[in-house]
Write a structure and sequence with these properties.
Cytochrome Bc1 Complex, Chain D, domain 2; 2 domains; disordered N terminus
Length: about 240
């Protein structure tokens, strides 16, 4: 059934929104963002002469596709996200900086994320200044104020019923393998429930790209997502 949907649904890119003539500083504070970015400099460079290190340089990241930078060896998960249509905009970068693995499951980036919305807005304002011509880049456009993607704590606090999750999981298991093998499709076995819930809600809000997953997640309510998270956490690889 899911394979049929794959053949029928095009790979969706994020819709680009009109942002108005905002100045780059309205995304956040660039000076404060430069200070926050010091947490990133062990792996990433920006500015004149920036080169790839452990992670790719981040010049021109706004408006680019995930895994698009030539010459850098990305993880399979990041390459898959790019193939699915992930574009680095103010919105998707904010979500990635908040919880990298919730947006790209097996990213090699070990950074745990910036939990404060203000820190994310500031570092994005700083990175925004290293685009070739910020005023010409759609949607990242000078730009929309960063959005805090924190889920309602009540959603994260839901205790899922693993037995109900097992009942619901039949459609998931059409593609994802219960033993944790990942032959072209990422494993979700033993995922931490919080990461699972955040990822599924990211699909629901169309922050995380993949047309089939967006459709499937959109059909689930909060309790059903919590139940699936509890079930897949109990499986053994």
């Amino acid at each position: 059934m899911i394979k049929n949907f794959v053949t029928l649904l095009p790979v969706a890119l994020f819709a680009l929104c009109a942002a108005g003539a905002l100045e780059a500083e309205e995304l956040g504070d660039t000076d404060a963002g430069q200070k926050v970015f010091k947490k990133c400099t062990g792996c990433h460079q920006v500015g004149s002469g920036a080169v790839d290190k452990i992670g790719p340089h981040l010049n021109g990241v706004f408006g680019s596709g995930a895994a698009e930078h030539e010459g850098y060896r990305y993880s399979k998960s990041m390459a898959r996200a790019g193939a699915d249509g992930l574009i680095w905009t103010a919105e998707t970068l904010d979500a990635y900086l908040e919880n990298p693995r919730a947006l790209v499951s097996k990213t090699r980036m070990s950074f745990r994320g910036l939990k404060k919305a203000e820190d994310r807005a500031n570092v994005l304002a700083y990175l925004r200044t290293f685009s070739d011509d910020p005023s010409d880049i759609p949607e990242a456009e000078p730009t929309a104020i960063a959005i805090d993607h924190d889920l309602d704590p009540a959603i994260l606090a839901l205790e899922g019923d693993p037995e109900y999750g097992e009942y619901l999981a039949s459609e998931c298991l059409t593609c994802h393998q219960s033993d944790g093998t990942a032959d072209g499709i990422p494993s979700i076995t033993l995922w931490e429930p919080e990461d699972f819930v955040i990822a599924m809600h990211a699909y629901k809000r169309k922050i995380r790209p993949h047309p089939v997953m967006q459709m499937l997640a959109g059909r689930l309510n909060d309790e059903e997502i919590a139940a699936l998270a509890a079930y897949f956490k109990t499986l053994e690889e």
